[in-house]
């Protein structure tokens, strides 16, 4: 596990104290984690001029090597889930994931690079369990007492995975976490879900009310499990990303209150890892909307993964 020494702008921990703690450690390394920032932004993006307001906090992490930890990922074969798996393994964590088709596990292009993209993982710290998230018995195999935190990054088209897969699967994950005493969980949904409908661009709002209506019903019910349901007593963070891309990580995440822009799946994954690993993560029990590009643009994903496929 990497124990985070996180410094926020309003932290009472001095830089000298942090340095002293690092010097006392036996080994140390710097890990690339996203800088979460908030700011006032106003300008032109892709020819459009709109105002976007960002709520603000800066997060910088310096991580010190300690004993190994274990992370559970649901949706590990997806574009965002595979980023989470890859980054956690690169940071030295043990990762266990559930997959209906384990052979679909592949290195993501964003963090892994184009040369490795799609190639099988070759890391002894990765365990892939074949199963279905809607099967409680399969989920129970993934979440054990030694799991540090859970990332839920489920996705897919309703016609392929069913109209209630997100809600049913998350219900099983919550039950397993409670049974094993695991508290931290990051849940990837989308901009436009829940009370963030007003932050979605106009064109996307039309899609939400038409071709994406079923999947957004499922996403809204999935969020309610944590906001007001059985998962409300967990240390959750509902992550609502803007337009998802397969680009390399930028290291910058904007937590926004205005209209969402685009964000690399790699940056979403890093944010999720922070949510389950950083002791003082500032967005626990919240549902932040995140993007890396302003607050006005909407960039569609490249490749065969749709914007809503995690």
Characterization of this structure:
The chain has 310 residues and is an alpha/beta fold. 29% of the residues lie in helices and 24% in strands. It has 9 helices and 15 strands. The strands form 4 sheets. Strands 2-13-15-11-10-9-6-7-8 form a 9-stranded mixed sheet, sandwiched between helices. It starts with a strand and ends in a 19-residue tail after the last strand. 49% of the residues are buried.
**Strand percentage:** 15-25%
What are the low-pLDDT stretches, counting only 5+ consecutive residues below 50? 1-33, 38-67, 295-309
Q: Between the first and last Cα atoms, what is the distance in angstroms?
A: 25 Å
Determine the number of helices (DSSP H or I, runs of at least 4 residues).
Answer: 9
Roughly what is the average pLDDT, rounded to an integer? 78
Spatial ordering of strands, largest sheet? 2-13-15-11-10-9-6-7-8
Computed Rg: 18 Å
Helix residue percentage: 25-40%
- Class computed from helices, strands and strand pairing: alpha/beta
Order of helices and strands: EHEEEEEHEHEHEHHEHHEEEEHE
Largest sheet entry = 9 strands, mixed
What form results from the Cα inertia axes? globular
Number of strands: 15
């Amino acid at each position: 596990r990497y124990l985070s020494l996180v410094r926020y702008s309003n932290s009472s921990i001095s830089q000298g104290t942090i340095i002293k703690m690092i010097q006392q450690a036996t080994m140390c390394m710097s890990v690339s984690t996203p800088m979460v920032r908030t700011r006032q932004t106003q300008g032109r993006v892709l020819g459009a001029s709109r105002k976007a307001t960002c709520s603000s906090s800066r997060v910088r992490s310096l991580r010190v090597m300690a004993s190994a930890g274990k992370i559970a990922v649901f949706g590990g074969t997806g574009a965002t889930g595979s980023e989470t798996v890859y980054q956690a393994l690169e940071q030295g964590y043990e990762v266990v994931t559930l997959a209906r088709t384990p052979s679909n596990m592949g290195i993501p292009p964003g963090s892994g690079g184009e040369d490795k993209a799609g190639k099988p993982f070759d890391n002894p710290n990765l365990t892939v369990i074949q199963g279905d998230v809607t099967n409680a018995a399969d989920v129970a195999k993934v979440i054990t007492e030694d799991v540090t935190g859970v990332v839920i990054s489920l996705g897919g088209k309703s016609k392929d995975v069913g109209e209630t897969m997100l809600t049913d699967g998350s219900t099983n994950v919550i039950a397993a976490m409670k049974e094993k005493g695991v508290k931290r969980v990051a849940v990837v949904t989308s901009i436009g879900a829940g009370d963030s409908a007003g932050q979605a661009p106009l064109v996307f709002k039309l899609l939400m009310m038409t071709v994406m209506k079923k999947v957004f019903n499922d996403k809204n019910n999935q969020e309610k499990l944590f906001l007001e349901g059985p998962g409300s007593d967990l240390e959750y963070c509902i992550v609502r990303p803007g337009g998802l891309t397969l680009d390399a990580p930028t290291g910058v995440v904007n937590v926004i209150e205005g209209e969402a822009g685009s964000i690399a799946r790699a940056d979403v994954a890093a944010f999720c890892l922070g949510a389950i690993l950083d002791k003082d993560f500032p967005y626990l029990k919240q549902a932040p909307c995140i993007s890396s590009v302003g607050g006005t643009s909407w960039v569609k994903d490249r490749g065969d993964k749709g914007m809503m496929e995690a």
